[in-house]
């Protein structure tokens, strides 16, 4: 494990918050499901059907594996600035969509409220600061924003297939029984535009903000590696 530094502390704080929030949310999902007669296996599968969960899980893993298993090929892949930039795009969408479309749908309390706050507010904002401060310039191109659509498009296809089999649609804007396929596909187009627009903004920030300050970013990386 690397010696202590500001970057180390930032990473450890983010990955700790991520694993705590994910495990807390999983526990409550399973317990609440059992209380309503839902088998734990179904609650587990439903838990991993949410884009929020998958994105935060990927983010937590991408910070954890390079730190504790730096020699793995997967760790080196996850630590690439381009992968970190794609992760930023996804987690920003998580926070924005929750704030604009989903927050009013429920009112969690206790540890579940804390987990909700971490997953949708603290981690998206914290990861943005981490990306700006510590991730080296990735020399991104505009087509990268298109490539990053593979994950959300794949998620949408999976959600539609799974929903058609099990009747479970994790988000109201993808609820086929209520909106029909036309309404869901229209929403999917808007989301694709949102993902591409956010990705393009990340590309622009990489080119205009981070690349304009390579010395500061490299200094932060050197400090973390000492």
Order of helices and strands: HHHHHHHHHH
Query: What share of the residues does DSSP label as strand, in percent?
Result: under 5%
Query: Please, what is the average pLDDT?
Result: 92
Mind summarizing the main beta sheet?
Answer: none
Key features?
226 residues; 10 helices; 0% strand; disordered C terminus
What do you see in this structure?
This protein is an all-alpha fold and 226 residues long. It is built from 10 helices and no strands. It has helices at 6-35, 40-47, 51-68, 73-78, 81-102, 110-134, 142-147, 150-166, 176-210, 214-225. The protein is globular.
Brief overview, please?
The chain is mainly α. The protein is 79% helix and 0% strand.
Topology readout:
Elements: H1 6-35, H2 40-47, H3 51-68, H4 73-78, H5 81-102, H6 110-134, H7 142-147, H8 150-166, H9 176-210, H10 214-225
Helix pairs in contact: 1-2, 1-3, 1-6, 3-5, 5-6, 5-9, 8-9
């Amino acid at each position: 494990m690397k010696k202590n530094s500001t970057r180390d502390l930032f990473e450890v704080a983010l990955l700790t918050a991520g694993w705590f929030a994910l495990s807390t949310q999983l526990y409550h999902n399973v317990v609440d499901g059992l209380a309503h007669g839902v088998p734990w296996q179904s609650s587990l599968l439903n838990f991993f059907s949410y884009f929020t969960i998958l994105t935060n899980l990927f983010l937590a893993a991408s910070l954890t594996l390079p730190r504790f298993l730096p020699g793995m090929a997967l760790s080196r892949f996850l630590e690439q600035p381009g992968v970190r930039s794609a992760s930023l795009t996804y987690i920003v969408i998580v926070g924005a969509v929750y704030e604009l479309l989903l927050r009013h749908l429920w009112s969690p309390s206790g540890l579940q409220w804390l987990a909700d706050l971490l997953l949708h507010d603290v981690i998206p904002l914290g990861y943005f600061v981490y990306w700006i401060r510590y991730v080296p310039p990735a020399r991104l191109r505009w087509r990268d924003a298109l490539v990053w659509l593979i994950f959300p498009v794949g998620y949408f296809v999976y959600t539609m297939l799974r929903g058609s089999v099990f009747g479970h649609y994790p988000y109201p804007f993808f609820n086929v029984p209520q909106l029909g396929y036309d309404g869901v596909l229209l929403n999917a187009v808007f989301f694709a535009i949102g993902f591409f627009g956010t990705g393009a903004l990340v590309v622009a920030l990489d080119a205009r903000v981070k690349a304009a300050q390579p010395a500061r970013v490299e200094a932060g990386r050197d400090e973390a590696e000492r």
